[in-house]
Structures are given as C-alpha cells and as structure tokens.
# Entry
Amino acid sequence: MTELFVNIGELKVLRGKGKLIAIGLGSCVGVALIDAEEQVAGLAHVFLHTSNNRQSETQPGKFADTAIDALLEAVLRQGAKRERLQAKIAGGACLFPSISGATTCVGELNVQAVLKHLGKAGIVLAGKDVGGSLGRKMTVDVSDGSVFVQTIGQEPRRM
# Structure
C-alpha cells in the first residue's frame, strides 16, 4: 500500500488505495479533502495563514489562503466530485503561548484562515481536531475516506 508523507508546505493527492500522512502538525494545520465514494483524497500541510505572492506561486500548500483552492483543484483533477467532498482538519496548536504575548497564537490564526477559505469554497467541514498545546499526526486512508489523528503521547483516534 502506498504511503505518502506530506511535509510542511506540501499538498498531495491519492486515488484508490493508500494513505496520506502529515506528521509534526504543531501550529500547522493538516487539511484533508475527501471523496470517499470515488476513493480520492488530498492533504495539505498548511504552515501559515497568509502568503506573499512570490512564495504562494512556488508552494501553494504552505499557506491557508492558497492551499484550499490548490488542493480542491488537485482532487477534482483526480476525479473527485465537488458535491461529495468533505474536509477534515487537524493541528493548529499553540505550542508557545506564553512566549508571544499575543492574544491569538499562530495555530489559531491558521485554523481560522483554513475555516474561512473552506467556507468560501463551499466545502463541508466534516471533522476537526484542533487547538491545545501538543502536536499531532494526521493519517488519511484513501480507500475508505477515514481519518485518524494521533496527539503526542496518546493513541490514534478516528475523526
């Protein structure tokens, strides 16, 4: 079975059998778009909530404001049907809340931006595991559309 690791700033799509895996989701947000019936899924490892023009062209998966549209386009090219797409997100932790002194941490900003852009795209949010202060691993099983999230020090759980 194919296992594709989605690193920071990347987005990847699989069709049929296989798993998409994002590790090290601290303040980053893993965004999965899934058409379980068609067995197509994509996963973006979003690093920041907003881009600058130059970086967004070379790494659209890195930023919430460009990742959603790029991921949507990629899963549709692989045969996903827009009306069946569901989104699941994980991550967005506040890893260093006492250091910044800001009222909103980077993880929260990332989650807010992802939710905003999913809403603009008209994609249903089917599940989320966000916030807190610990990192996560997100695994998408393309064959059945299931998503498992494992928080550091805990057992994986189905979202």
In short: The chain has four helices and ten strands. Residues 6 and 22 are 5 Å apart (CA to CA).
